[in-house]
Each structure stands twice: as structure tokens, then as C-alpha cells.
Amino acid sequence: MRSRSFVWNYHVMLLPGILLLIAFSVIPMFGIAIAFQDFQPTLGIFHSEWVGWDNFSYMFSLPDSKLIFVNTLTIALMKIAAGLIVPFVFALLLHEVYHVKFKRTIQTIVYLPHFMSWVILSGVLVNLLSLDGLINQMIKWFGGDPIMFLQSNSWFRAIIVSSDVWKEFGFSTIIYIAALTSINTNLYEAAAIDGATRFQRLRHITVPSLMTTIILLATLALGNVLNAGFEQILNLYNPIVYQTGDIIDTYVYRAGLLEIQYGLATAVGLLKSLVSFLLITISYVLAARFANYRIF
Amino acid sequence: MVKGNSRAVDMMIYVFLAFIAFLSMAPVLNTLAISFSGKIAAMSGEVYFWPVDFNLNAYKSVISDRGFFVSFGVSIKRVLLGGAINFVITILMAYPLSKSGKFFPGRNIYMWFIVFCMLFSGGLIPWYMTIYTFGMLDTIWALVLPTAVPVFNVILLMNFFKGIPKELEDAANIDGAGPWKTLILIFVPVSTPALATVTLFSIVGHWNSFFDGMILMQHKENWPLQTYIQQLIISVNSIMNTTDPEEIKRLSNMSSQLLNAAKVMVSMVPIMLIYPFLQKYFVSGIVLGAVKE
Amino acid sequence: MKTKRILALLCAVTVFGLTACSSGGDNGNASNSTNAGNKTPQQTETNTEPEADKPFGKYNETVTITLGRQGVSGNNLPSGDTLESNQFLKYVEDRLNVKVKYDFSVEDLDAYNQKVTLAIASNNTPDVMVVDEQQFKRMAQAKMLADLTDVYDQYASPLIKEYYSSYTDDRVLNTGRIDGKLLALPNTNIDGSYQLLWIRKDWLDKLKLTPPKSMEEVTAIVKAFKEQDPDGNNKADTVGLLGEKSVVTDGGFFTFDPVFNVNHSYPKNWFKDSSGNIVYGSTTPETKEALKVLRDLYAADLIDKEFLTRKWEDNAGLVSSGRAGILFAPWFAGWALSDAVKTNPNADWIPLAVPLDGEGNRNIVPSVPSGMFLVVNKKAENPEAVIKMLNVEYEGIRLIDPASQELYKDLGVGWQNYPLNLQLDYQDSLARDIPVFDQAIKDNTSAGLPARIIPRVNSVLKNNKDPKKDLPAYADSLAFYTGAAVTGAKEIKKIDPIFYGKTATMLKKGANLEKLENETFLKIITGTAPMDEFDKFVSTWKNIGGDEITKEIADAVAGK
Predict the structure, then answer these.
(1) Which of C22, C11, C28, C26 lies closest to C432, judged by CA?
(2) Residue C253: pLDDT band by 50, 70, 90 thresholds?
(3) Model confidence over A12-64: pLDDT tens digits?
(4) pLDDT digits (tens, 9 = 90+) for C144-199
(5) What biological-process GO terms show up in the record (chain B) (predicted)?
(6) pTM above 0.90, yes or no
């Protein structure tokens, strides 16, 4: 009896959130129709002419469409790889520190960039990377030639990935550090008695105990392979680096909001949603099967 | 020998970590130094981590910029209102969802529904049209309601709740406490780390977002601070400036780079203020919310 | 998009009214009248009509007009006043009993385009907006616009009509017509807004160089500026020729149009080639040649290495800090360049006409007649009120109504603070003022001239007497007088495009084509792609819509 009234209460608790999701997520989903229409604002989505797959075939006829998918994938995969490895190494190093205050100070500092917005950071980065900026001053000081980082197709992706790593690596160490603290200290003591060197302990105890975590994080990252970082790129790119830096989200933004190509923008966005949904589902299944981890 | 070697390695690790930590702060320190520097030094790249030709002109100009403070106010309002809404919704959703499907039939349907909403969208234009239809353009509600359900935070808190011993809840139930009482009197008080974490996330999220402000706010005075700063950094300082003697005079004493640096610094202040208070919680909050056994 | 910004600038320069109704002081009578409209023949014929039906008639009941527009960045209104609440706005409101309500106003162009796009998409456009051609055509296609044919005829003031009729063949107003209906009031782009070559005279003198005539001489001067330390600070900090990432823009600052034109290349415009075929200027062999020239300049460090990431104010900063000494920009760059005097009183920017080609011509492409369109929503209840607002506004902007002369007197507040930011003027407004200035200098007085030109004449006189002492006067003089005079250089050869505007395919695919073009040009200039990239661009361009557009234009031209 009681449990039935409990369940009723659970539904009530969920109600406000669900209503908000319906209002701001489900209702706008009807707009997907625009991808299959020659959308006319005065007619609305209910009366605009249906054009089938026209918007999609136009999308694939554009040389840009392949480019933006390639760019998105490349940047996202580079970010995922670097975002797994750098915090991992950093956590290992931090784990070697026994001085508690020092450790905490370092942690406090490296977490901080995570909480700054890309709007702010891009302002900072543009200054830093300009010809007169700090980085180029240092390059000149070492006798090198200054580099135009943000307008170079060979540098742009590297800038995007490394600034993302710079912003997030500290924060991402949290999970590794948590996993490290759960390692049974007896293991280390036993190893020390057996005469294992520092490096051997690292190799045979520390790293293996992090393997599950890293595999899990890698699986979960799968859902992000089409998210290359809209806010970051929007605030840092320029037309010359479209070739290497224009991603699906920035393209959709420009096509839909600046160039009034509603159908095209919605079609590209829909394709992205579909692929992302598929990938998340795959990662959910993989995580559940191999790590016995349920994300939700 | 081994010990000496080990100490050397320790030293190297310490130095390296300290260096990395410095790199983490370097851009911010550089911006800070620029914001206090003279125009010519800043423009010719002579400023590293210490102001050159120390002066406060940029900050004086920020203080006299009404638009900046209006937007600052919008952001504060947004954070308070949006943060409060997020807080309530997160708790209310995380609790029932932390029950297993056995206790709460329908739980998995809700869960998939939420995840589906997170991943799929009809695109920006339909989203805008919906908010317009609700009559929310140019109101604070447009900034706080569409983001009212922070799915990631809900999942995090839900996992934290799952880790709370069943016995606590059972004991409360035996004492006659219903779900609401159990949630408010038992679950919320023991979840400080997780709640501090999700609160920090939602505050930072609200404080940092610029895009919805740009799309949904029709008048400058309704822009949140990040939108204001984003527009400031990207927008061409209109040519209008140069037709006006006063403007020419004012601009000539100040490079936009300096001014931007000052505004960037001021806009970071609120985050810097709350960060230390919440920082000590979020390690345990995230860990318990994400890495469960 | 760039064009809009430039247009905003053009507008900016007409703060006090750029032109006399005709040269000389013949219209003192108009400025003595509080209601010039009363004098028009139409008014006398129709004075039995209710007041509200006249071009300047005041409404009995308040009429509300909603408005969405681009704001004025760096607005210089006195503190307390804003775009949405100021004396100019109140002046218009009071004279007509109209209430203006701003649906949105943002300054950044991208942000403004977003607002317009979203307003169109949600079918929620304000009564009035000033939009670009793409947006105008799109709204017309969606049947969102009011037909202004009749209200224009009935309500537009003689002054407004005169502005439009000063353009031959009604070519400006025609850009607002679709299928014979007037669906928008276009702005007017005055003659002479092509680029000039601006150069630091004091640097030339220091290095004992003479003003250049050909492109080769320009190159030699850039090289000298770059390498011989013209500012004598013993630092190699001079950046070379300034650039702009849009590469080619009608009336653009820092763009390379003259380098193309001197090579007989006319990118972004439509022409008939020697055999009568319709060609797109960006795809011709001459354009490839011109790109090669720019590429060589860039490779030799003679073009600012960083021009791709420079914003307008960055380039302006290079000018004012004395790191740039040569650039292409229209006559109105005078305002921006005068700034350099502040950091260095010896800085002396002079305008020269664009370089001569091999045949001794200075090739230029006349501006498109208009690029901005004032559109009225079909749902608006009082479309005529918009026309009337424009009437009143121009009586104010041109200081024809004495009452308007008192608004923000001597503060130099931008005219864009009037509600409708649509720039209108006579086609030859630039040229027709030059004799006025000459005469005023000769007589050393501005007495007897029309009110609206007096501030400019005073500036010219003041600067003539005491050069560069009064910065605003120097700036005015450098733009309106020195700069404007050069636009009329006698070797100018105008290359008239055969087609202006956008066809259906251009509306649909134009953005992607422009992106391809701009990227290709930038890559070739900066050397990140080989010269052959140009041929690839031409064939891709043709395949993804260029051929279609060429055909549409051929049809349009043949249809005329």
C-alpha cells in the first residue's frame, strides 16, 4: 500500500522537470520537419512545402559537408585521446607527491581553468597567440620566427586541442585521483618489502589499477566524437582556417542564423543528432557489458 | 643510493608539477598584467607577468561603463534564479530516479526520456520559435527555464543518492516518514558534497553561457555578462567612433586589448569568490557521483 | 556583410548632411520654413485632405511603429540618452505623433543578422527593419512585405523623391522593386566611394620618394617603407600594405580592389567579356594574375603578414601608432587616418588616386546602387507612417527644419540615432560640394550657405587657416575636401557591371560560393595553396551553382 503512494509521490517529484523538458526539448523537436521542407516562415512548419530529401542531397553536393565532418571527427578524436592521456599522466605524478599541502595547492590551481568560459579564454588566447603576444615573444627570444597560430591551417587544430587540454586536464584528473586513492596501500608496502623500485610499483600496481577507469572513460567519450567544441571554435576561428577548423556546429550556426538556409542547417543538425544518439547508445551498451557500468 | 635517487626524482616531480600549475595560470596572469599596463607596452607585447607602466585607466573605464554593470546585474540575477531552479529540479528528479525499477516502475522510461531529450534537438530555429511562442524573449525566464533541467547534474546526484545506505531510508520509513520527508530530512543533509558540486556546476554554467543570451535577448540591457563580453571582443569598434572627437580622444588613450583585459578580469571575480568555498567538496562529490562500485 | 559595415560608415559621414540641395546657397528659403512640406505642389492641391494624409501630417491618435535595427557601436550620445530614447527620436515622434517601439537593437552585424533571421523564421518581424539584399529577397519571397508603391507616391516628401530621382534610370529605386511592386526603399550609395591610395607624405619626403603613379611604384614605396625605417625609430616595425580578409569589397577599407582593377580584373562583379559572353569577374584569367601579384607581395612581406586576423580597429591601431604608412581606403577614411596626428603631429596622410594601368587609365568599378533595404511588414497597420518618418527624419538630418538644428547642437551625435538608419543622398553629392568648399576658402566665409553644409565648410576653413590644430576640423577637411576631391581624378575609367543584385540561385547558394571564393583568394594570397588552386576554384564554382547563376543573369540581361 505504502509503496504505491510512494510511487505516486515519485511521479509528482518528476513532474516539473518532465514538463520543462517537454516544453523546451520535445516541442522544438517538431522543427526537425524543416529538414524535409522548403521552409517558408509565413506558412510555418505545418504548411510549408515538403521536399523530401532535397536538403540532404544538396548538403552532400557541397564540398563543405565532407570537410566539416572530417574536421569535427579529427578535432574531437584528438581531444578525446589527449583528454584521456594527459590527466592520466598528471594524476600519476600527483600521486607521487606526499606533501599534502603542496598537492592540494596544485590541485586547486589546475582545476581553475575548467571554470572559465570560452568567451573569456578566447579573448586571452587571441592576445597570447598574436604576433606580438607572449608566445611569439618567447619564440623570438629563442631566435625562432614568429608564427601566426590562429590563421595557420597547420596549427589551428593543434591550438584547439591543446587549449582544450589546458582548460580541462586538471579537472579531469579528479576521477583518476579518486581511483588512485582507493588502491590498497598494503599492496605498495608489500611491493616495497619485495624490493620493487618506484618505477616497478608504478608499472605493476598503479597503472593496472587505473585501467578500468581509463577504459570506462574512453567508452563514455564515444558519445562526444561529434562534439568538437562549438563555443571554443566559434570564438577562435576565422575564414582562413575553415579548412581545418570549421565543424558541424559552427557550420549549422552560420548556415541557419547568418545565411538563412533553414533547411540545410536543420538537415545537417539532424544528421549530427542521429549519429550522436547512435554512438551514445553503443557506448552505453559497451560500458554495461564490459565494465558492468550503467551510466544512468 | 636508492634513497638519494628517489629524492632527486621527487624533486623533479615537484618542480614539474609546479611548472604545470604555473602554466595553468599563466594566461590569466598575463591578462592581469596587461590590464594594469600602459597602452603602448600592452600593444607592442612587452608585458609578461608584471604590469609595465602601471596604471588603472582600463579599470576606471570599466567602472564608468554602464552597460558592463547592467550585464553584470543580469548575470547575477540569472545565476541566483537559475541556480535555485536547477537546485530544486535536480534534487526532485535525482531522488525518484535513484530508486531501482523494481521499487519505481516507470523509472527506466523516465530515464531514457531524459537522455533522449539531452541528445536530440530540433535545432536552433525551432527552439527559438518555441521560446518566442511562450512569450519569453527578452525576459530572464528565457535564460533560466530552457536550462532548468541539468541532465548531467541529475545523473551525478542520482548516483550519489544510490550510494546512500538503504538502512537510513528504511529507518526513516519505519518512523513514518514519506518520500518527501525522507528526501528533505535524510538525503539532502547527507549529500552536501554532491549538492555543492552540482550547485557549483550550475552556477558556473549559468555564469559562463553567452550563446542563449545572444540569441534570446533582444536588447543590450538584457544581455548577461558573457554575451556582453563576447560581443565586445568580436565586434568591430565601429567606424562611428572616429567621427567623434571625444571618442577619438578616449579610444586613443586605451587600446581595446587593455579594456578587454580589464573586463575579462572583472568578470572572473564572482567565480573566483565562490570557487574556494565549493572546491573542497567537489572532489568527493564527483567521485561518489560518477565512480560507483 | 562587409558592405553593410562600410555603408554604416558612409552613413556616419553624413552626420550633418553632406550635400547642398544644389551647389551654392540657393535654398535659404527652405531652411526658413518649419514645414517644408507645406510648400510642395501636392500639398497645395490636396489641402482639403485631413492633416494626417500629408507627407508631414501629424496623426490625431498616436500611431505605434515597431522597429528592429542595428545599433550604433561606440555611440556618442550624451550620457543618459540611448538609441531607444534620445532627442532625434523624440523629434520624429513629436512631429508626427508616432510612437517608436524597438523590438530589438544590437550593434554587432552578425548579431543583428541573427536577430533578423530568427524574426523572419518565426514570422515575427517588426513593422520596419533595414535589411540586406538577401534578407529582403527572402522576405519578399515569403510574402511578408507591404507594397509601398502607392504610399511612396502619395507620402514621400519632395526631398526624398529628389534623392532617388538623382540616380539615372531610377536605378536605385528599381532595386527595391520586385515584379513592378515597390517592396522596399533602398539606400543610395553615392558616387565616388571606391578606394583611394592613402600614403604617409612625411615618410615619402623623408625617404626622398615621389608619390607613386603605377603599381610598380607603389610596390617600391611599400618596400622602402618596410625596409628603410621611415619613422626613424630604428625598429623594423613597419607592417607594409594593410589588408582586409574580405579581399575585395565595394567601398571597403584596406581591401585590395585597386590591385585587381589595375590588372583589369573586377572580382565579385558581372561583366561581358570581349566576345560578349557574360562572365563573373572573380573567375577571369586577369583575376588570377592579380592574385599572383598579391601573392608575391605577401611572400615578400610587403603586405601586412597578419591581415587575416586583424579587425578594423587593429588596422586603425596600426595607423594611429605609426606602424602603417600605406593603404587602400575610400575618401571617408580621412576620419580614421587623421587619428595618426595625435601620436605624431608630423604624420601627414594624403590621398592619391588608384594606380594607373598600362594604358594610363585608373580603373574603378562604380558602387552598387544600394545594398540596404528599408522594408515594412505586410501586417503593419500604418505603412505610410514609415514614409512620413523618413520625410521628417531627413528634414532633421539635413537641418532643413531650424528646430532640428538645436538637437545636440555641436555634439556631433551620429544621425543614426534617428529611428530609420537608411542613408539617402544625391548620386553626385560628393562632387557637387567641392566647388562650394573652394569658393568658401576663396571668400574665407561660410556665410550664405545652406545650414546643413556650414559645419563642414567651417571645418575646412578652420583647418585651412591652422592645419591639423583642431583634430575634428582636420578630419572633416581630410575626408570631405582633400579625399573627396581625389575621387574625381581625370584618368578614372568606370567599368560598369551589367548586373547588380541577387538571382534566385545566388540567394540559395550564394553564401557557399562566396565562402569558396574568399577562402581560395586568401589561400592563394597567403601562399598556403598553389596558384593552380585558382583553376580548381573556377571549376568547382561553376559546378556548384556558378553556371546556373551565369545563365540566370544572361536571361535577366536579355530580358531587359
Answers:
(1) C22
(2) confident
(3) 999 999 999 999 999 999 889 999 998 888 888 888 899 999 999 988 888 78
(4) 999 999 999 999 999 999 999 999 888 899 999 999 999 999 999 888 888 999 99
(5) transmembrane transport
(6) no
Give the HSE-up count for residue A189: Cα atoms under 13 Å, Cβ half-sphere.
3
Grid coordinates representing A30 are: 517538431
The pLDDT value recorded for residue B45 is 65
* pLDDT score, position C218: 94
Q: What are phi and psi of C536, to 5 degrees?
A: -65, -45
The two most distant CA atoms of chain A are separated, in Å, by 80
- Regarding whether B260 and B154 lie in a shared domain, the answer is yes
pLDDT digits (tens, 9 = 90+) for A257-275: 877 888 888 998 888 888 8
* Cα–Cα distance, A44 to A42 (Å, whole number): 6
Q: Which residues of A touch C113 (CB under 8 A)?
A: 257-258
According to the model, what pLDDT value does residue B44 have?
Answer: 64
The answer to whether A253 and C536 are in contact (CB under 8 A) is no
- Helix pair C533-541, C285-299: axis angle to 10 deg: 140
Calpha distance B129→C454 (Å, rounded): 50
Q: Which residues contact A104 (CB under 8 A, 6 or more apart)?
A: none
Residue A241 covered by a domain? yes
Query: Would you tell me which residues 155-174 of chain A have a C-beta closer than 8 angstroms to some C-beta of chain C?
Result: none
Q: Any idea which fold C33-191+370-417 has?
A: D-Maltodextrin-Binding Protein; domain 2 (3.40.190)
Please report, to the nearest 10 degrees, the dihedral formed by the alpha carbons of residues C522, C525, C530, C535 taken in order.
Answer: 70
Count of other CB atoms within 10 angstroms of residue B102 = 7
Range of the domain at A285: 64-290
Question: Domain limits at B50?
Answer: 1-55
- CA-angle at B290, arms to B286 and B292, nearest 5°: 120
Do the chains contact at B218 and C104, CB–CB below 8 Å?
yes
B193-219 per-position pLDDT tens digit: 889 888 988 998 999 998 999 999 988
CATH of C196-365+467-494, one of 3.60.10.10, 3.40.190.10, 3.40.50.300, 3.30.200.120: 3.40.190.10
Report in angstroms the alpha-carbon separations of C512 from A137, C140, C507, C522. 38, 22, 10, 15
Q: Which DSSP symbol is given to B155?
A: H
Q: Are C367 and C250 in contact (CB under 8 A)?
A: yes
| Cα gap A27→B132, rounded to integer Å | 12
The predicted structure's pLDDT at residue B234: 57
Same-domain status, B269 and B215: yes
Q: Which of B232, B235, B252, B260 to mutate to test the interface with C (most CBs of C within 10 A)?
A: B235
Contacts of C416 in chain B (CB under 8 A): 240
Q: What is the DSSP string of A212-241?
A: HHHHHHHHHHGGGTT---HHHHHHH--GGG
Pair B191, B153 in one domain: yes
Q: How confident is the model at residue B90 (pLDDT cuts 50, 70, 90)?
A: very high
Query: Looking at the structure, do residues B34 and B162 belong to the same domain, yes or no?
Result: no
Domain tally for chain B? 2
| Cell matching residue C508 | 540559395
The set of cell numbers assigned to C246 is: 574580405
Task: Say yes or no for a CB contact (<8 Å) between C144 and A42.
Answer: yes
In this complex, the residue of B234, B236, B247 whose CB is nearest that of residue C76 is: B247
**Band of the pLDDT at B247, cuts 50, 70, 90?**
very low
Domain presence at residue A139? yes
- Contact by Cβ (8 Å): B137, B194: no
C362: β partners: C492
Which residue in B68, B46, B49 sits closest to B58, CA to CA?
Answer: B68
Q: Where a domain ends, among B55, B77, B99?
A: B55
How many Å apart are CA B74 and CA B69, to the nearest integer? 9
- Model confidence at B259, in pLDDT bands (50, 70, 90)? low
Verify whether the Cβ–Cβ distance B27 to A175 is below 8 Å.
no
